[in-house]
Design brief:
Layout (H helix, E strand, L loop, with lengths): L1 H18 L6 H16 L3 H14 L4 H12 L8 H9 L2 E2 L12 E2 L2 H11 L3 H12 L7 H21 L6 E4 L10 E6 L5 E6 L19 E6 L10 E2 L10 E6 L5 E6 L6 E8 L2 E2 L3 E2 L19 E3 L5 E6 L9 E6 L10 E2 L10 E6 L5 E6 L9 E8 L2 E2 L3 E2 L10 E6 L5 E6 L9 E6 L9 E9 L10 E6 L5 E4 L7 E6 L4 E8 L2 E9 L5 H4 L4 E7 L24 H7 L1 H5 L1 H4 L2 H5 L7 H6 L2 H5 L1 H5 L1 H5 L32 H17 L22 H5 L2
Parallel strand pairs: 1-2, 25-31
Antiparallel strand pairs: 3-24, 4-5, 5-6, 6-7, 8-9, 9-10, 10-11, 10-12, 13-14, 14-15, 15-16, 17-18, 18-19, 19-20, 19-21, 22-23, 23-24, 25-28, 26-27, 26-29, 29-30
Helix pairs in contact: 2-3, 3-4, 4-5, 4-6, 5-6, 6-7, 7-8
């Protein structure tokens, strides 16, 4: 009996000893506990985490320390799942009378339930998360409406997550690799229409080296660039250069389809604004803040925060993000349109179909001009920012649709741009296979959601070898709708990137100093969407020569032979495969389609509009007026008015806004100067097109 009592006493003593805190310096423990809390208040989460992990080694039963560790792991970029065991420990020892900053407080606060529910949601444990969120709601006052609204929103995330993960989409998602990604945050990719260049934002060591860090010990944002190599890989990332990158923050937010305009975010001491830089040769210019030139009326940039923007492929519409007052909640999407004078209009909110009560960010308008991709914490997100798309229709924007799992995750998925053919997307995300915090990924899309787009690369040159005039502009006028799209060649190379609906008839004209110097009818290639991803239309136009060099070249898909920048001299003039390849000559879509094939007697050899039209030679505006050798519309009244007559139409639209603006400016000119000169230039196609426009030749002479 005495032996049994002794054994019970020994077991009891051993159990009690396990429950007691281990031996450590209590003063040192208290000091580190206080320092760790101060670091949390200052948001130095990494340093605070190391401190509390050390305290946990000293006292593994301290539920309050476990709660702090779980909270800090949730703030990390890639280790959020590590928070779960610590928060589960904390939830076994909750108290309503929690003393936050007291080291002797060994229990955890009831809000630990909320953070464990957040961790379960991020770990795809949706049912556990919902149950814990609901339980936590019973512990808080009904007066805490903001907290209850947040919990209900997160419960909706969990429900959306269950639905999306039960119907996964067969995306192939690939990390962009070491050439692009680094051990530091890499995000916000932007690409050219031909996918030959990718620019992105990185917080790797940049300008100022290892010592140029923010107050939270991160490197400042800089812009980096990679080029696609012939073998499909990417060149090593390099800084975009000192004209853009400084000792402060600079970030990519948008890129024009031809790569000539780069839209940049600059912090401006907390007042984030949108800037634009122009590519001059191989160097981007010093960025200029939008809306600051004399005569600008746009309110793109305000005292609010404008962190993101993109521009449509034809350069006519700017989409951007702002948290200015008057929106639908948080950050909203807005747009500005290009005015006839070339400046941006006032901003217009895209409305409640696109904007939710929560944050929207990172817009990207596809080259089809209709499909808008963006990220949102609202709509049917499965957690944080998810990627959505909405389509512009005659009645407005459609209800945004989630791009689906696994492209979207329970964490932030943002900064999404898509290839012209709709088959590849580039975006930034936190993922387990990441090389460090956010990485940039490429996703192969099984079923494109954007409209088919024909990508055409034109190289415009002067026959005498002179550089192109900066005023050179290419107009493509739809023969079906009369709508005109304008594209400007790159002055150094003449490269003109054109994106239009496939299989449609257009009139192509080239204008220099307001004068039409080239005109022809063509049909955009590839009616079949499948063909768009297989071929790229490459064309060279030599101004001042009788024969326009026409080299429609078939290129392999991007997946096998990536698109690279073409050298027009090699492709057009010296490449024997382009001139003599029998397969190219026999391509029925290029050479035998009656809508594309040109009448050699009219266009190539004897076109009187190009070489022998006596009216053009005698036109005093174009040829003989010595005082007006290079007339531009803006040299006169300042109104740039053009009207495209569609088939058998002969009357001006006098109710159009730009026509009324022209009349108003003429009246103003008369009132101030007493006289005004009006120059009128016109052109017409004489070439019959298809079966519907056979009388073009007769109408052109009317």
């Amino acid at each position: 009996m005495k032996l049994r009592s002794l054994l019970i006493l020994l077991v009891f003593s051993f159990t009690v000893s396990l429950a007691q805190p281990p031996s450590f310096d209590k003063k040192e423990f208290r000091y580190l506990f206080e320092q760790g809390n101060l670091m949390i208040l200052e948001q130095f989460y990494d340093t605070a985490l190391k401190t509390f992990l050390k305290l946990h080694q000293w006292d593994t039963a301290h539920a309050n320390v476990a709660y702090k560790i779980g909270f800090l792991y949730l703030q990390s970029a890639t280790n959020k799942a590590k928070s779960i065991p610590y928060l589960e420990q904390a939830n076994r020892h909750l108290t309503k009378k929690y003393v936050e900053f007291e080291a002797s407080e060994r229990n955890a606060p009831e809000i630990a339930m909320y953070y464990l529910a957040v961790a379960y949601h991020l770990d795809y444990k949706f049912d556990e998360a919902i149950a814990l969120f609901e339980k936590y709601k019973t512990r808080i006052s009904a007066k805490n409406t903001d907290v209850i609204a947040d919990i209900n929103h997160r419960i909706e995330w969990c429900k959306n997550g269950k639905a999306l993960t039960n119907a996964p989409i067969n995306f192939i998602i690939t990390n962009m690799g070491d050439s692009v990604n680094s051990p530091y945050p890499d995000y916000s990719p932007v690409i050219t229409a031909d996918e030959s260049m990718i620019l992105f934002t990185s917080r790797r060591p940049g300008v100022g080296g290892m010592d140029n860090r923010t107050i939270d010990d991160q490197f400042y944002e800089d812009i980096w660039v990679c080029y696609r190599k012939p073998d499909g890989t990417w060149t090593e990332a390099q800084s975009i250069g000192p004209t853009i990158n400084t000792f402060d923050h600079e970030a990519t937010i948008g890129l024009s389809a031809d790569g000539q305009q780069l839209f940049i975010y600059k912090d401006d001491k907390g007042d984030g604004n949108i800037y634009v830089s122009e590519l001059n040769g191989n160097v981007f210019s010093v960025p200029e803040k939008l809306g600051t030139e004399p005569g600008d009326i746009t309110d793109v940039n305000t005292i609010a925060w404008e962190p993101s923007a993109c521009v449509s492929a034809d350069g006519s519409t700017l989409y951007f993000v702002s948290d200015r007052k008057g929106g639908f909640g948080g950050r909203d999407l807005y747009k500005c349109v290009k005015l006839p004078n070339g400046r941006w209009s006032k901003a217009l909110n895209l409305g409640p179909s696109v904007n939710s009560p929560y944050d929207e960010d990172a817009p990207f308008i596809h080259p089809d001009g209709k499909t808008l991709f963006f990220s949102s914490k609202g709509h049917k997100s499965m957690g944080g920012f998810d990627i959505f798309f909405s389509t512009k229709t005659d009645s407005g924007w459609t209800v945004p649709e989630n791009m689906g799992y696994p492209m979207n995750t329970t964490d932030d998925d943002i900064f999404y741009v898509m290839s012209t053919d709709g088959r590849r997307a580039y975006f930034a995300s936190y993922r387990e296979d990441g090389k460090g915090e956010k990485d940039i990924y490429m996703a192969t899309i099984p079923i494109p959601v954007s409209e088919p787009v024909a990508l055409m690369l034109f190289y415009v040159k002067n026959g005498n070898g002179d550089p192109l005039d900066p005023s050179t502009v290419m107009h493509l006028i739809s023969l079906e709708t009369g709508e005109t799209k304008d594209f400007r060649p790159v002055i150094g190379t003449g490269k003109t990137t054109v994106t239009l609906p496939p299989g449609k008839p257009y009139t192509l004209t080239i204008e220099v100093n307001g004068n039409n110097v080239y005109s022809e009818d063509l049909k955009t290639p590839y009616d079949d969407f499948t063909d768009i991803q297989k071929e790229t239309y490459v064309r060279t136009i030599v101004l001042g020569e009788l024969i326009a060099s026409d080299t429609t070249k078939t290129v392999q898909p991007v997946d096998s032979v990536p698109l690279v920048k073409k050298d027009p001299d090699v492709i057009v003039k010296k490449d024997p495969d382009v001139k003599k390849d029998p397969d190219t000559k026999k391509d029925p879509d290029v050479k035998k389609d009656p809508d594309i094939k040109k009448d050699p007697d009219v266009i190539v050899k004897k076109d009187p509009d190009v070489k022998k039209n006596p009216d053009l030679k005698k036109d005093p505006i174009i040829k003989k007026d010595p005082s007006q050798p290079t007339v531009k519309w803006t040299d006169t009244t300042g109104a740039n008015y053009a009207y495209n007559f569609t088939y058998k139409k002969t009357k001006l639209d006098t109710e159009a806004a730009d026509f009324k603006q022209l009349i108003d400016q003429i009246v103003s000119e008369l009132n101030t100067k007493g006289s005004v000169k009006i120059y009128i230039a016109s052109c017409a196609s004489t070439v019959p097109v298809g079966g519907s426009y056979k009388s073009n030749s007769e109408l052109a002479l009317a």
